[in-house]
Prior knowledge:
By secondary structure, the protein is an alpha/beta fold.
Amino acid sequence: MRPQTHSSSSSTDRRLNSLLRHLQNNSNSIIMDSQTTIISSSPTSAFNTNHSVFANIPQGPEDPILGVTVAYNKDPSPIKLNLGVGAYRTEEGKPLVLDVVRRAEQIILNDRSRVKEYLPITGLPDFNKFSAKLIFGNDSPAIQENRIVTVQCLSGTGSLRVGAEFLARHYHERTIYIPQPTWGNHPKVFTIAGLSVKYYRYYDPTTRGLDFQGLLEDLRSAPSGAIVLLHACAHNPTGVDPTLEQWEQIRQLMRSRGLLPFFDSAYQGFASGNLDADAQSVRIFVADGGECFAAQSYAKNMGLYGERVGALSIVCKSTDVASRVESQLKLVIRPMYSNPPIHGASIVATILKDRNMFSEWTVELKAMADRIISMRQQLFDALRARGTPGDWSHIIKQIGMFTFTGLNTEQVKFMTKEYHIYMTSDGRISMAGLSSRTVPHLADAIHAAVTRVA
Ligand code: KET
């Protein structure tokens, strides 16, 4: 399979072209940034109270993931089930605010010395310091050598976007390779920032496992210096991760080809229940002294979804380079959103720097990860009990929040229509949205879909 290109030519042209494509194709949401101005070409000169300057704006489609929740909310059925978005739910099907988060908020609330001043452009210093330790490890040489710059950003998405904008401005190679398949927002985030997106092979539907040879071949033929997006753990949507030995081979190949790793770490702690184990892929790359990018999200592992807390780290070769990189990150951030919000980052910093709160967090995190693993087993058992045709062992083998079921778009449509089960059209289900109570309903729906819809 040949990697496909998403965009080309100079950065400004690329922005405009991609925006025009969005408008013309009526595809995906339309994103405008400060560098793009649209001038109305309407010939009407007289002011007309009934005529909107946006009269010809095309209706954009819903987001493929967040749109599932929109459809779910409109469904009046009492048996409806939302397995679309990757958001944790309790056994009772309710969103969860961690006890340790409530406790941190209480501490923050009671501390009268805390004010609501602007944070620095790069965010809360303690948050940045402890976030770097969390992903790179307490004893990371790169931290000790002071050659990592970490900036607080708007959750994982904002961290990816800031990293992408920085690369588009300051890096010589504009091509980023992302896995096929990947989180649906990746190609959009990178394209709109002015990078050119290509895919590397990742998932083999026949084995329901990693296409490791395909991955190596595609990275081997990538141009020297190309950026490579890697899911740190719990690959979304497939739930298939390389083994540590495979990571080591990927590292050797990437370093030998001068490819620049950009890790997306949205599920640290959710894959295995262990924060250190889930950061091994990143740490292998940092240990060799080379450069790398890492985007961290606290949406899932601390349940801070709507607080929008995350960090972008750039590991550099020296303190001197790191400080110049930081100066340029500030120039990216300031005109985008000026500086990040204070509340969520204060919660995270409060938890990360207190030994007791940190360990309380790890217990709650492990409980979430374990509940997801138990849902995998229960769903697998339920399908086996029904004699549903097919080998469903991938449900228990896959890692993280999602099961990539192998159900096709038609089968998904059928399950939504007949069973009020909402999921993304690629057959991904969020295991965190399931509970012991709802497993039988899902198993019935899958059984019916597999036996009745081709
Ligand atoms: N990276 C990956 C791989 C990812 O799955 C998500 C979110 C993000 C980054 C961004 O998360 P943030 O909330 O910006 O920290 N994924 C889930 C939610 C979404 O699509 O926004 C999802 O796949 O359901």
